[in-house]
Specification:
Layout (H helix, E strand, L loop, with lengths): L5 E5 L3 H11 L4 E7 L11 E8 L2 E7 L14 E5 L2 H12 L3 E9 L2 E8 L5 E6 L1
Parallel strand pairs: 1-4, 5-8
Antiparallel strand pairs: 2-3, 3-4, 6-7, 7-8
Amino acid sequence: MQKINTFLMFEGQAEEAMNFYISLFEDSEVLSMTKYGPEGPGREGSIIHASFALKGQTYMCIDSHVKHGFTFTPAISLYVHCESEEEIETLCGKLLDGGSALMPLGEYGFSKKFAWVKDRFGVTWQLNLA
């Protein structure tokens, strides 16, 4: 077990987001998932707690049944070291589907190819061609 895990809080989209993320990376999987039943307090079928792995790195997520006045912020993002042009372009395209570019895919002084995107769930990703 990792000592420190990234923990993502959604409001009804945790399972969809988790399945989307594991579809992006080889060697990724859902490790565990517990859902609310009809007794609640969350919506039936939403995630009480789930763990998933992306390329061996473990993440956790939930569907909060409490509405909060905040969501994800670009102040923290998932940083991906891409190994090829194809990988960075594919990831960028998939993450931008329903999302937005904070820094479009391009050449920057610190990187020959980089993008900073917010996916359709509000999670931000920095993609860098290594």
